[in-house]
Design goal:
- By secondary structure, this protein is α/β, with parallel strands linked by helices.
- The chain has 5 helices and 4 strands, in the order E-H-E-H-E-H-E-H-H.
- Strands 1-2-3-4 form a 4-stranded parallel sheet.
- Helix 2 links the parallel strand 2 and strand 3.
- It is globular, with a radius of gyration of 15 Å.
- The N and C termini lie far apart (45 Å).
């Protein structure tokens, strides 16, 4: 398990990649990235985690993010990464997954009001 805390932004991506890649190199049966203590998470960090999830899948390692706060869940849904990056809401759910080998990690649902939303900006206007 990789536990992260504090604000995560684009400057943290290279270090995060090294850490997660190092853990994936050990080929554990499952790898969790705990973001429960992260008050802000940039889109670049989430995209990097989604890429790591794909790498884990290719290596046969189950990968999930532990998060329940809006600062992580909302950007995941807005960017469409909720379809690629499995999220469990608590460490208890993650332990249940590991013990029973069941998958309770599910894509974060997109709220109906967001599906109909127009983009916040367009370029060119």
């Amino acid at each position: 398990m990789v536990t992260l805390a504090g604000d995560l932004d684009a400057a943290d991506v290279p270090r995060l990649r090294r850490i997660v890649s190092g853990e994936l190199g050990l080929l554990p049966p499952a790898l969790l990235v705990d973001l429960t203590e992260v008050p802000f998470c940039s889109a670049r960090v989430l995209k990097s985690l989604a890429e790591q999830a794909e790498n884990a899948r290719g290596a046969g390692v189950r990968f999930a993010v532990v998060a329940q706060q809006r600062a992580v869940l909302r950007p995941l849904a807005l960017l469409g990464l909720n379809r690629v990056l499995p999220v469990v809401r608590s460490l208890d759910d993650a332990v249940l997954n590991a013990r029973t080998r069941r998958r309770t990690a599910q894509p974060v649902p997109v709220p109906p009001w967001l599906e109909r939303a127009r983009p916040l900006w367009t370029y060119p206007p």
